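Hello,

I think I submitted the magnesium ion job twice by accident. Can you confirm which output corresponds to this input? Input:
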Amino acid sequence: MKPPALVEPPHLAVDLKTLRLPTVLEHWERQAQEALRARRTSPEYLADLMHLEVHHRREKRIRRLIQEARFPVLKTLDSFDFNAQPGLQRDTLLDLAQGRFVASHENVLLIGGVGTGKTHLAIALGVSCCQQERRVRYFTAAELTNDLVEAKHQGRLSRRMEYLARFDVVVLDELGYVPFDKQGADLLFGLVSKVYERKSLIVTTNLPFARWSEVFLDPTAAAAVIDRIVHHATILKTEGESYRLRSAQGTRRKPRPEEKPS
Ligand code: ADP
Ligand code: MG
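Support: Only one job matched these inputs. Its output is below.
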């Protein structure tokens, strides 16, 4: 049956634009026809239409937050193979994905060898934070230090620090892959201190704590950073050989000693 023709009320389009309700503008007519057909009451029609607007607005905001986070790729917990990491509890990750650690300004630290899924998990948690409408920003440790060094050289370090400290979550990936110089180490320490107990960090590293002084050049600086990151943190360890290597070989055999990550 042909839907009943509706006369557009005068001013409606202008008012909806003024009120910035684009979804209502786009859908009011089709929804109204459906409501007539299904004999929905006008309060129900109104509620459905408003709900649609709220839903679309939220989706748009989440898309924007995910873009703003600048993840190098998108990963989800759904696509993480927990069988490959028997030491990791799926429940722990699902619980973290609920985002309470962000509300309580706690950190997540992922430690493990190359290719064991640290970046995958860090991004997946970052994405779930975006889905809870948190502001997230991803950096590799090298990118972040370069960013801070550059800001310092351009005389805008404190503004940059303020900007970064406004994110609810900063993902600091690949700490330990590249050692910092003294200035880089100091700047990174500065940021970690600034967000300590105010915001959350998701940090990934291939280095056990005992070796952090290699990255931060001196043991005191390393201890200070570890102290602040670990104080309120969930520490997760990823193990085994590289998932990439395993998928390439199409097998889950035990690694030979010479293949074990150092
Ligand atoms: P890391 O950061 O520890 O070096 P990545 O997270 O970059 O490792 O993982 C390397 C690749 O393997 C990525 O494409 C990642 O999605 C995939 N990967 C690693 N572990 C798993 C896993 N348990 N389940 C699914 N994919 C995985
Ligand atoms: Mg990685």
